[in-house]
Amino acid sequence: MAAGRAGGAGAAMPRAAALLWLLLPALAALEPLSVGLAIGAASALTGFLSYPSFYCSYVECCPGEGQRLNASALRAQLAARLFGQHVARDVALRAAAGAARRRSPRKALVLSLHGWGGTGKNLLSQIVAEQLHPAGLRSRFVHLFVATLHFPHRHLVRLYQEQLQKWIQGNVSACPHSVFIFDEMDKLHPGLIDAIKPFLDYYEQVNGVSYNKAVFIFLSNAGANLINQVALDFWRSGRQREEIQLKDLESVLSVGVFNNKNSGLWHSSLIEKNLIDYFVPFLPLEHKHVKMCIRAEMLSRGHPVDEKVVEEVIEEMTFFPKEEKIYSDKGCKTVQAKLNFHWDAVMRDAKAES
Ligand SMILES: *[C@@H]1O[C@H](CO)[C@@H](O)[C@H](O)[C@H]1NC(C)=O
Ligand SMILES: *[C@@H]1O[C@H](CO)[C@@H](O)[C@H](O)[C@H]1NC(C)=O
């Protein structure tokens, strides 16, 4: 069916389609094949209707023209799931508010997320993506590229460039609100950065397609050491972490990221042309934030919070700097694995006893 007909829901529903709407739940109880057939029939029927709401409750649809990032929903999600990142949270909210204000944006929204591993960069991109596409990373309109996974070979850069451009073009044609997340941006070949660049720029259209409603999110460790240093300086001078403001970090980001040949070269061409709309810095996480991650992970798996286990997991993690041991080496990254390990051990013991 014609993709890209991203219209608002609630178009007039013909009688036949209304009938299908009544039948679908009944069919769902039967078997996947009949549901598939019904959805096929529905899609044939409604292809011209620009996605009525009943259809979109069974098949994921591209959000309509009026759809915007909802800042209050975003705020609630960030408060519940992203810990210890007041600066990143505020910048993300500002970006969402900005995107909501602009009825016809002049360029794609481009966020560049910086910080140590496990501090929440992936989580934040996921939360932002979910605002536009509730299925998040599973959505067919959300695309995650990991540099070392998807583009590992230098000698294939030409091929990757072509592929990537074709994908971005194809996906944005199908859904203007497509979200592209690039992880390990600092490991992405400069040739691929060049390939993405036209899509980020202030063009009305590129080859007949407008990219102004797309969202690009870049993740990297670039500048992380300098961000950590700022946090540590605040701590050592007895100031509150919450006093750290974007401006305290922006300066180190520009120096650290853009003048550092090892990690930052990729950025300079994007910076020079002002293609990045928001820099989002992630602070290193303290004990109390990692504990929040552990508790949240327990709850999300349907376990009650067990403070004894929280302490045990924390106990196994390492913290820096060597003397003060304030910040988690791996942020919250290993929390899931450590909890799995813990629960496996509990199961084993229970089996051994019985
Ligand atoms: C935004 O999200 C809030 C909280 O989830 C919700 O109450 C509100 O209706 C949403 N606004 C729009 C325009 O969707
Ligand atoms: C959309 O992107 C994916 C990669 O995430 C790719 O496999 C697919 O072919 C693209 N779709 C189009 C229509 O280009």
TrEMBL record:
Classification via Gene3D superfamilies: P-loop containing nucleotide triphosphate hydrolases (3.40.50.300)
Domain of life of the source: Eukaryota
One GO location term (cellular component): endoplasmic reticulum lumen
GO molecular function ontology, one term from the record: kinesin binding
Subcellular location: Endoplasmic reticulum lumen
Main location: endoplasmic reticulum
BP GO annotations: nuclear membrane organization; protein localization to nucleus
Signal peptide positions on this chain: 1-28
InterPro entries xrefs: P-loop_NTPase, TOR1A_C, Torsin, Torsin_1/2
Protein's UniProt keywords contain Signal: yes
Pfam families: TOR1A_C, Torsin
Torsin-1A C-terminal domain mapped to chain residues: 285-341
Residues that, per the record, bind ATP: G115, W116, G117, G118, T119, G120, K121, N122
Keywords: ATP-binding, Endoplasmic reticulum, Glycoprotein, Nucleotide-binding, Signal
Similarity field: Belongs to the ClpA/ClpB family. Torsin subfamily.
This protein's name: Torsin
